[in-house]
Amino acid sequence: MLEITLGSALMYYFASHELDVKPKPKDAIYYTELADSREQSFGRNHREMVHVKPALENQFRGIVRQAYDYSCGSAALTTLLNGYVGTNLTEQQTMEGLLRFGEYNRIIERRSFSLLDMKRFVAAIGYESGGFKGEFTDLINQNQPVIVPISYAGFKHFVVFKAYKDGRVYVADPALGNISFDQERFKQIWENNTLFIINAPKNQQNNMLALQDADMRHVEDATINRYALVEAQYSADYTNKLADKASTMRKVIDQSTTSPTYNQPITTYMRLYYKRK
């Protein structure tokens, strides 16, 4: 009787501990793969936890997304202040500051913020800033994020220039997220070659707008043009062979006068085609 009781207690202990389910992290998924393809047993399976994030989260990494169609200026300024200068502001706080220290009546009239409004607000919170006009080399030689106005898709828009690398300009767009332009394309849309710079102490600077590998996942126009009409998965010859295997074979007389088997019985493949009504 004692042995049965002891055995039951041991079974309960091991079962309760083995079945103890630990909480899974929010962004974790588990995948299982066969560690050795020559062995199909479960013991050869490899199970690992990986962390995944929504693509949209990475698309707007380090960016304050604009809340209104006219608020690209306040969102871009908040992105630069938080991501580089090291502040911790919301777009609403920045908008209120721009309205308070900027040209209020003109802001209401044009339903947008100007670089002068930005300069006044930035000065009010204790930082030096200024708008300048320069060449493309001046922009990339700054080695820091700056706000640039662009004229894109028929609209005037503010974005944050992040970096230049290998002929591409990487920007933080408060409407579209982390995107990039070909160098020549950026020069075309850069409005009046204007840039807005904020000076921040070295010990306070943030690196949220630093270029990362994920930013460089773009498809160049040349690549799209090269592969747009290419049968990427299977060639037509291969798909025809697959269709022949799934079709019905039948004997017919070859009616092609140019064929070496003219007027002789040959094997053909009869395929079924479905027509939409």
Automatic annotation (TrEMBL):
Domain of life, source organism: Bacteria
UniProt record, GO biological process: proteolysis
One Pfam assignment: Peptidase_C39
GO function term, MF aspect, one: ATP binding
All residue ranges annotated as the Peptidase C39 domain in the record: 66-197
UniProt xrefs under CDD domains: Peptidase_C39G
UniProt xrefs under InterPro entries: Peptidase_C39
One Gene Ontology cellular component annotation held by this UniProt entry: membrane
Protein name, per record: Peptidase
UniProt organism field: Acinetobacter wuhouensis
